Amino acid sequence: MAMMKEVWHRAKTRIEEKVPDHSFSLWIEPIEFSGWQGDEVVLRCPTSFFRQWVTRHYLPLIQVEVEKVCGTPCRITLEVSDGNNGNGHPAPLPEQLCLPNVGDERRILSPLHTDYTFDQFLVGMCNHFAYNAALSMACEDRNDHAPLYLLSKTGLGKSHLSQAVGNHILKKNATIRVCYVTAEEFTNAMVHALRNDRIEAFKEKYRRQCDVLLLEDVQFLSGKLKTQDELAYTLDALYDAHKKLIFTGSYLPSDIPKMDEKLSSRLSAGVISSIDPPDFETRVEILRKKAALKKVEIPEEVVEYLASKLTQNVRQLESGLIGVAAKASLLGLPIDTELAESVVKNIVRRSRRVTIERIQKLVCKHYKLTKDELVSKSRKRAITQPRQIAMYLARRYTDQSLQTIGRSFNRYHATTLHAIGVVERHLRENGSIQKQVAFLSEKLESGNF
């Protein structure tokens, strides 16, 4: 049983690398291992709706990653935790996925990751200012606090800090209406409202029934002009009402292509705080803290070794820690530097060996295309789809900028960002693209390309 729990932890780590931070924290992290019998792995979800949503959007990905870790075919069964649905009736929809009636006084609260608190966030020189800015907003009772924009690459803690603000505020006063939403969810909700003649209810929700707005991943607003217009009006209303606003993004608003200047200025109107990759001392403390939380006893020399080799982000550190613990458990080996070296070698080798050129070569081989076809101006689906997947893989597996990736495919920055967004949306669906990306990702991670 303990071994299968470790398998699920490892599978979750792999899944975390394949989905956006907010999606992982909302829909994957809460899933717990429940049992294992024969080829059936039983996982536990908090509510009936949660189970339905995960089944529809993530079950194929979960099955693929569990089978990769297990090394054998298996069946995934999702059950609902006892007692979470009251008297056995299905749980209600999370409120960020429905539109309240006009005048509805319910608190609009999207699911916040309960572990994303200030206590669980490790502070170092790389994130000290961002931490203090977020904590100040969470603790400040006055209503004229400047908006906060958290800027960082994936895996450095901007989602953690954003949700920590929401969790802290709700802990002090559960009646405060906190709305946590991603830019993509905001866009989808607006489209749904327009199609169903519910736009006034949509405006009511975000403009007049929201005390704290946590808006994640604003770079996904690129090119969505109608959504940008609506969001600009929404922010004006919230500014005028002195509400608290936090935005997160991977780029400065002014650097996001096809972003309206008025909205860009609103997003940049407050404090902009970047979060840098952690330094060595901070990486050591992160590993210590995560090891304690996961109840993994790890020698200090192994902690320092991992911290010295895994330098990109917190996610990579956690991947190394879980990999070492899982390998030791599965093989019955002691956790030492030799074991850590074998785990780190794969992680570092993967990040160093993968280049845009090699990704292009792999994609061309898989889809039977020439490189000239891949980087051509053709809009045929048989070419555009592999091209978008190649751009996504380049963004995920290399450190190259969007501009560099775009140039490698004869595309502009905005086109590259759009292509990556298209693939990320497909990954959240149960479709063939998800399987294709998983196959190509496995090739890249194994070095078999």
Describe this structure in words.
With 449 residues, the protein is an alpha/beta fold. The chain folds into 4 domains: 2-80, DnaA, N-terminal domain (GMP Synthetase, Chain A, domain 3), CATH 3.30.300; 95-274, 3-Layer(aba) Sandwich (Rossmann fold); 282-351, Helicase, Ruva Protein, domain 3; 356-446, Chromosomal Replication Initiator Protein Dnaa, Chain: A (Orthogonal Bundle), CATH 1.10.1750. Helices cover 55% and strands 9% of the residues. It is built from 20 helices and 8 strands. The protein has helices at 2-16, 21-28, 48-57, 59-70, 128-139, 158-172, 183-195, 199-208, 225-240, 261-267, 280-293, 300-309, 314-331, 337-353, 356-367, 371-374, 381-397, 402-408, 413-427, 432-446, and strands at 32-37, 40-45, 75-80, 148-151, 178-182, 212-216, 244-249, 271-274. The strands form 2 sheets. A 5-stranded parallel β-sheet has the order 5-6-7-4-8. Helix 7 runs antiparallel to helix 8 (199-208), helix 11 packs across helix 12 (300-309) and helix 13 (314-331) packs across helix 14. The longest helix is centred in the C-terminal third of the chain and has 18 residues, at 314-331.
Shape descriptor reads: globular
| Mean pLDDT across all amino acids | 81
What is the name of the CATH class of the largest domain? Alpha Beta
Q: What oligomeric arrangement do these chains adopt?
A: single chain
Q: How many separate helices?
A: 20
Q: Domains counted in the coordinates: how many?
A: 4
Tell me about the biggest sheet?
Answer: 5 strands, parallel
In terms of DSSP E residues, the strand content is: 5-15%
CATH architecture of the largest domain, by name, is 3-Layer(aba) Sandwich
What string gives the helices and strands in order?
HHEEHHEHEHEHHEHEHEHHHHHHHHHH
CATH-defined topology of the largest domain: Rossmann fold
* CATH H-tier superfamily of the largest domain: P-loop containing nucleotide triphosphate hydrolases
Structural class determined from secondary elements: alpha/beta
End-to-end distance: 35 Å
Low-confidence runs:
83-110
How are the strands ordered across the major sheet? Answer: 5-6-7-4-8
- DSSP helix fraction: 55-70%
Radius of gyration (CA) equals: 22 Å
